[in-house]
Task: inverse folding
């Protein structure tokens, strides 16, 4: 097997790991900057309001997450069906359209959870 043939799958598998690592590093740097600011204010003798001492909470939005996943699934299915690439055995890559069903179904689950929680 050629080294170039391994390069693309390696990049595809590495991309999600890099995204997670970059996100975690960004959050770590944000937290460190916040603590540094609080320490500087405390060193100056400034009274710290209670709002600054509470950790910021991320808004949890099942509806937004569901819509993003549904769109991702539909886009993945459309892309795979539209690509004119032929595999070595003569089959089209369009046969892989089912891969888009996973994010689509997860998105539908998030929308159902949002709808059920909104009602009760």
Result:
């Amino acid at each position: 097997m050629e080294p170039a043939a391994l390069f693309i799958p390696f990049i595809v598998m590495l991309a999600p790991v890099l995204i997670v690592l970059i996100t975690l590093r960004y959050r770590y740097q944000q937290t460190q900057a916040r603590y540094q600011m609080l320490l500087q204010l405390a060193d100056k003798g400034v009274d710290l309001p209670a709002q600054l001492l509470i950790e910021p909470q991320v808004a949890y939005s099942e509806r937004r997450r569901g819509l993003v996943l549904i769109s991702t699934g539909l886009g993945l299915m459309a892309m795979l069906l539209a690509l004119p690439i032929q595999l070595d055995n003569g089959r089209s890559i369009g046969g892989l359209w089912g891969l888009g069903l996973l994010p689509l179904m997860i998105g539908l689950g998030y929308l159902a959870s949002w709808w059920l929680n909104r009602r009760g």
Summary: The chain has a mean pLDDT of 86. The radius of gyration is 23 Å. The helical segments are 3-43, 50-53, 62-82, 101-119.
